[in-house]
C-alpha cells in the first residue's frame, strides 16, 4: 500500500532548498507514495516542475510581497495573520485544508517548519525534517543549543553536510537520538546543468572587446549571501588598479539595497545585477571564476553546479565548503570576512596561474555522490519510517 505523505515548505521560489525538493519529487517513482505538498504561498519558479501526480495545496496564492508599499500592506498583513492562526490552531488546518486526511509521514522540507510538523494533531504519523542550513551560524535564526535540541522530536533528521551532522551529533544525548541523524547529499541533476549551460543568450556571452576577468555569483539576494561584501571588495580592488567585472544573478528582498549600494559605491559600470534568471549556467560557464561570498550556508548547492562546469572557485569558509572543495584541493577557500574575499580575489587577479592547479584537479574529478544515489537514500528513509 502507498504511504501517505504530507510535505510542507513556504513556497517554490528560486532557492536551493526549493530546487532540491523539486528535483527529488521529479525523480521519485509515482508508485512509491501518495503526496500532498502544502505551500504557505502558491508561487515560485519551480511550481510548473512539480509532477502532476503530486497534489499541491496552499494557504495563500499570489506572488511574494517583499516591499512595504501602502497598497500591499493589507494583503501582507492578512497572509501573516492567517498563517499564524493556522500555526496556533493546527486542528483547523488539518480539518479544513487537509480535509481530515491521515498521513503516515509528515515531512518538513526546511527547518523553518519544525514547529508546524511537531505540533501536528496526527500523533501516529512519523515526523521527518530536512536541514539545509548551519543553524548555529545564521544571523537570521540565532538557534541556541536548546532550540536545536527540539529537532530531536523528529523521527529522522536529514542533514546535508558533515558540519551540520557534527553539530547535531554533539547535542544528541542518547544513541537513539544520534541514530535519528542521517546525512543525505542534495539531489541535483548534473546532466541538466551541463545541457542548460550550452543554451547561450546575448547577456550571458562573454565580452569580446576589452575582455576583463569576470567573477560570477548566484543566489537569492539577502544578507546571508554577502553580495554587499563582494561589491565593496570589487570597488577596493578596482581602486588599486585591478580591472575586473562582477556579475550577480538572483533576486530577493535585499535586491534594492544591493542596487543602491552598487550605485553608492560607483560600481554600476563594472558590476551587473542581472536579477533572477531561469538559467544561470551559461553565465557560470563563461565567467573566469565562480565566487561564493556567503556569510553562512548549509551545503552551498551552487558550488556543486560550478564544480560540474569545471570552474575556478573562490569560496568563504562556511559550512559545506571544505567538504565540497575537498579541503581546498578543488578551489580556493578564504576566511569568512570581507578581507578574506579581498585576499582571494586579489590572488586570482595578481597570479591567475596559481588557479591552474584547481583546474587540473577538477579535470578528472568525479562527484562522490549522484542524483540517483541521493534520491534512493531518501526513498530508503521514507520506506523505513
Key descriptive features of the protein:
385 residues; single chain; Rossmann fold; 37% helix; alpha/beta; 6-stranded parallel beta sheet; 7-stranded parallel beta sheet; 2 domains
The SS-based structural class is: alpha/beta
Shape: globular
Spatially, the strands of the biggest sheet line up as 3-2-1-4-5-6-7
Largest sheet geometry: 7 strands, parallel
Please give the CATH class of the largest domain.
Answer: Alpha Beta
Q: Unreliable runs, pLDDT <50, ≥5 residues?
A: none
Strand content: 15-25%
Distance between the termini: 14 Å
Helix content: 25-40%
Any idea what the radius of gyration is?
22 Å
Number of helices: 16
Second rung of CATH, namely the architecture of the largest domain: 3-Layer(aba) Sandwich
Could you explain the architecture of this structure?
The chain has 385 residues and is an alpha/beta fold. The protein has two domains: 3-185 and 370-384, Rossmann fold (3-Layer(aba) Sandwich); 190-363, Rossmann fold (3-Layer(aba) Sandwich), CATH 3.40.50.2000. It is 37% helix and 18% strand. It has helices spanning 16-26, 73-88, 90-97, 114-118, 145-149, 162-171, 175-178, 190-197, 227-239, 255-265, 281-286, 301-308, 321-324, 338-350, 356-363, 371-384; strands at 3-9, 33-42, 55-61, 105-108, 126-131, 156-159, 181-183, 214-218, 245-249, 271-275, 289-292, 312-316, 332-334. The chain has a seven-stranded parallel β-sheet with strand order 3-2-1-4-5-6-7, sandwiched between helices. A six-stranded parallel β-sheet has the order 10-9-8-11-12-13, with helices on both faces. The protein starts with a strand and ends with a helix. 40% of the residues are buried. The model has no long low-confidence stretch (mean pLDDT 90).
Amino acid at each position: 500500500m502507498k504511504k501517505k505523505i504530507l510535505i510542507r515548505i513556504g513556497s517554490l521560489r528560486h532557492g536551493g532548498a526549493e530546487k532540491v525538493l523539486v528535483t527529488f519529487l521529479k525523480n521519485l517513482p509515482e508508485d512509491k507514495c501518495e503526496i500532498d505538498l502544502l505551500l504557505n504561498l502558491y508561487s515560485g519558479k519551480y511550481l510548473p516542475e512539480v509532477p502532476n501526480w503530486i497534489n499541491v495545496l496552499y494557504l495563500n496564492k499570489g506572488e511574494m510581497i517583499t516591499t512595504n508599499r501602502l497598497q500591499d500592506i493589507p494583503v501582507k498583513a492578512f497572509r501573516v495573520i492567517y498563517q499564524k492562526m493556522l500555526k496556533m490552531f493546527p486542528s483547523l488546518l488539518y480539518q479544513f485544508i487537509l480535509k481530515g486526511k491521515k498521513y503516515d509521514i509528515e515531512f518538513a522540507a526546511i527547518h523553518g517548519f519544525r514547529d508546524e510538523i511537531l505540533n501536528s494533531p496526527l500523533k501516529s504519523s512519523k515526523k521527518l525534517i530536512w536541514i539545509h542550513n548551519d543553524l548555529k551560524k545564521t544571523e537570521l535564526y540565532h538557534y541556541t543549543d536548546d532550540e536545536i535540541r527540539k529537532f530531536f522530536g523528529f523521527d529522522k533528521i536529514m542533514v546535508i553536510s558533515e558540519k551540520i551532522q557534527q553539530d547535531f551529533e554533539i547535542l544528541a544525548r542518547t544513541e537513539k537520538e544520534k541514530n535519528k541523524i542521517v546525512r543525505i547529499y542534495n539531489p541535483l541533476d548534473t546532466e541538466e546543468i551541463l545541457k542548460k549551460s550550452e543554451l547561450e543568450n546575448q547577456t550571458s556571452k562573454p565580452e569580446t572587446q576589452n575582455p576583463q576577468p569576470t567573477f560570477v555569483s548566484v543566489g537569492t539576494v539577502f544578507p546571508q549571501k554577502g553580495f554587499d561584501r563582494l561589491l565593496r571588495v570589487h570597488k577596493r580592488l578596482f581602486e588599486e588598479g585591478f580591472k575586473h567585472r562582477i556579475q550577480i544573478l538572483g533576486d530577493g528582498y535585499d535586491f534594492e539595497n544591493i542596487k543602491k549600494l552598487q550605485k553608492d559605491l560607483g560600481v554600476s559600470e563594472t558590476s551587473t545585477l542581472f536579477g533572477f534568471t531561469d538559467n544561470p549556467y551559461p553565465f557560470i560557464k563563461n565567467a573566469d571564476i565562480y565566487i561564493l561570498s556567503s556569510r553562512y550556508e548549509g551545503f552551498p548547492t551552487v558550488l556543486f553546479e560550478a564544480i560540474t562546469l569545471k570552474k575556478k572557485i573562490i569560496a568563504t569558509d562556511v559550512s559545506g565548503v571544505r567538504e565540497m572543495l575537498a579541503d581546498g584541493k578543488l578551489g580556493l577557500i578564504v576566511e569568512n570576512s570581507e578581507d578574506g574575499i579581498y585576499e582571494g580575489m586579489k590572488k586570482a587577479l595578481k597570479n591567475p596561474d596559481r588557479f591552474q592547479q584547481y583546474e587540473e584537479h577538477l579535470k578528472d574529478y568525479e562527484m562522490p555522490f549522484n542524483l540517483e544515489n541521493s534520491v534512493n537514500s531518501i526513498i530508503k528513509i521514507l520506506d523505513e519510517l
